[in-house]
Specification:
This protein is rod-shaped. It has 320 residues and is of the alpha/beta class. A hairpin with a 4-residue loop joins strand 1 and strand 2. The protein folds into three domains: 86 residues, Orthogonal Bundle (Arc Repressor Mutant, subunit A), CATH 1.10.10; 95 residues, Periplasmic binding protein-like II (D-Maltodextrin-Binding Protein, domain 2, 3-Layer(aba) Sandwich), CATH 3.40.190; 110 residues, D-Maltodextrin-Binding Protein, domain 2, CATH 3.40.190. The chain has a five-stranded mixed β-sheet, with helices on one face. The chain has a five-stranded mixed β-sheet with strand order 11-8-12-7-13. It is built from nine helices and 14 strands. Helix 1 packs across helix 4.
Length: 320
Amino acid sequence: MDSLDLIQTFREVARRGSFSGAARALGMSPANVSKYIAQLESRFGLRLFHRTTRKVTLTEAGELLFERSGAVLELIDFTQGEMQERATRPVGRLALTAPHALMATELPALLGRFMQHYPGVTLHLHVTNRTVNLVDEGVDLAFRVGQILEPNLIVRRLLRLDHVAAATPAYWDRRGRPTHPNELPGHDQLAFALPGEAPHWRFHDRGKPLELLLTPRFAATDPAPLKTWAAQGLGVVWGSVHWLADLLASGTLEPLLHDYSPPEVWLYVGYMQRRHSSAALRALLDYLDAHFQPPPMPALPAAGRKRARARAAPSPDGQG
């Protein structure tokens, strides 16, 4: 029998001064009440009640247990109420993780609007390009670009990430507009690469993956500065329309080679529990599903609209 049930039965007997009265209040048989009290006395090795044929009174040990157990039960009741609230209403803390590139998208503003909509929820966002182990690091939800390989994660697709080669119109005018990825080695490349990783871009050509090894003019372990360098006309960046949306929409960058975009590269979220998730996590997942829509694809030059291809998912390039 659970200790909490034994304590609650003990307190009911103490309040009513009767085993039968406690049994009626608890919806139990008097025999079960007696059995619970006997189990509790056996655990403590002390008698808790003086028993006569007419009434039941507390021993000194029983008085001590009655006095101390009240605060414990109040705390348990309060905690149970909070736990039920977290299960039914979006409140409490959520720990999230996301790569640096997503900080240059609308994701931060979206999370801010979520907190405005659910003021009882607090968010802790760990921004890192490292793959975080959700269990070991106590993370509720991870934003990832490309495939999620951890077998224990539940994965949900949020947004398809179409890729383009982008540079300023003045750069393209000066250096020429490529019509195939194989022409990019003749251009100034602005590339993202993790430490120890060779810079490369991934494409899709005639139904097959195409990987281009780079000798970039600028390389960075974080994709954030690549947008700035591209906007300054320093070279070509290969990244998602979603990531480059503001510069494409303003005309600062001109997109090319969209037809060679890696197929079915998605922004995903991964989380651990399908059942018994908190109401806050369920609310965030629903909010992301409802609001994470891709930006409109900007008008592409005729050379970029030559072909439409069937797609199959490749590895990500890290520039979500």
